[in-house]
What we know:
Immunoglobulin-like; 2 domains; 4-stranded antiparallel beta sheet; 5 helices; globular; disordered N terminus
Amino acid sequence: MRNLLKALSLAAAGILSAAAESPFGAQVVDYSTACRDLRFNNANNVLGAPARFVKVYSGDMGGVSSDAYGGVVHPVVPGYTGGLHLSLVSPDDEEPGYVVIAFDHDVVDDPDNPFGVDFIVFGNSGCTKSSTTGMTALDDPASCRLTSSGFPEESVVEVAQNPSGPWYGSARWRTADGFAPTLGHVYDPANADTNLYSGNLWWGAPTDPTYPVDPSIDFSDCAGLTLAELCQRYNGSAGGTGYDLADANGLPADAAHGGRKWFRYVRISCAYSEEPNEEGDYGFTEPEVDAVADVAPVSGYRQWVLANFSWAEAWQTNLTAATAIAPNGIANGLNCVYGLAPTDAVAANVPFKVAAFEHGVTEHVIKMYSPAWLNATPRGLVVREAAALGGEWTGITPTFVSSRQDGDKWLNTFTVPKDASSRFFKLALDAD
């Protein structure tokens, strides 16, 4: 379920449809490619989820399907066959090839998104392995060693709030057809899905295309890892290249979207290369586009894990908010709500408790003590309201107002809007 702010902003704009939102590209608005191969110039290839599986039809095998030479899409065997992506080829030396894709909702700069990433673009890049021999779907990923290089294809990514622009991008944004290469299924030998293909011993549940890989990681970080280790460090993600809307230069924000930047249309274009390619030619690159995805927000506890564990460690933590105790002796989920780092010491006599709940005409004011200074609403803290004690409780995240020191603790002020139908309120902590 998409976050409440996004749903409210869409309703306010009068564009919330009865159909459920899709996290993926819903419509191709425009495109231009000089690709002559009919398998790769179908613009509809960019809609929906990214490719998960490669089924190879080889002329040498008389057109017979061979899963063994395809199988699950992963960083060494990307989705390279027909019907899985759109190849962008510039029609001439003056105009780049491009595709403009529309979401069925506005994509918002959401602070609860993992790593701050707001949307992901999938291509068909891959990692380079140290062995020159081919890899089949029957080979053990734990026996495949990777190098520090890959085979990306440069591209330009821009976003817009209207299909005709203006278009906004950032020098901080990476190429779309680069790291992280798509991963279709989780590497999980203990739970390998034998229905995927005959002989599958390695791949389990589908990965999540709305959850990004740490954007600070690149091909160089793969050096010396096995394919199995790299896939584990994706931590359930389907990969792709992530983009933070906060970096989009000049992209407008407005009140209807909570004062945050937003877009609905994304354009991926061929980049002009000043360096010669493998054939020694200059000019526009020829990237591939498989899919685009709106990133889904994650819980406060998950945010805590991402902030305090490295890319190499996070997938191994197996922590839960109830049982994982940080070095300061406090459960990790509570550290997240308290606003504490896992090593911050807390005096035993400093509580985290409500000081007051003041009813107002248009909003209610909550005053709360905490053991640390806060600069935002603690993750996981919600106010639940109901018309009757036996009725349904609905939740809303309080708005942070201020934090000031009061002796050996901090007094924080939050507000929540008043709902005329609600007569009962309670504070709650959401942690997974």
